[in-house]
Amino acid sequence: MVSGTLGCKSDVLVREFFEILANVVISNDRHIAKLLLPHVVLDVLNPGIKQQGRLQAVLDEVLAVPRGDPADKKFERCANFVFGLMDHLAKWSQLARARITKERNTIRRQPNSSGSAAAIDLLKERVRGVQSFLKKVPHHDISLASERARDYLRHIMHCEAQIRAERGD
């Protein structure tokens, strides 16, 4: 999935990096996979890269987990991977929006500052891509999966979000 995702000079370095780590991930070291997954998905969600097929593949995988069989021994682990991914994307989006606001304010106060309007626009695009991805994952599905995975706090949070969305809040 990672091969060819950057479309820039660093693409070769990324491929080499992931080829080295592939053996670790293949040997069932889930901790490495759990650490890498959010960063790989953020890369796939980069709007500057034409990879709609990969984006859909990631979305299909994310949506498959909540609809999985809770009797399966791997369900809870997979659900927790997805929950961690969703949390990481939401946190990244929140931090990126804060950075955009800070950079925009810096540019307004100091027009000759090092902040670049083009860089801010690119970051805004990435945030929109991440938020669009997160909106494609229904609260209802995450709510049910979190209940089945015994993550009751997340279950309540997504139930509330679903109710707010239905009301239009």
UniProtKB/TrEMBL annotation:
Name of one Pfam family that matches: M-HEAT_ATR
EC number(s) per entry: 2.7.11.1
Source taxonomy: Eukaryota, Fungi, Fungi incertae sedis, Chytridiomycota, Chytridiomycota incertae sedis
Keywords annotated in UniProt: Kinase, Transferase
Top-level EC class: transferase
Segments forming domain Serine/threonine-protein kinase ATR-like M-HEAT region: 17-167
Protein name as annotated: non-specific serine/threonine protein kinase
Record InterPro entries: ATR-like_M-HEAT
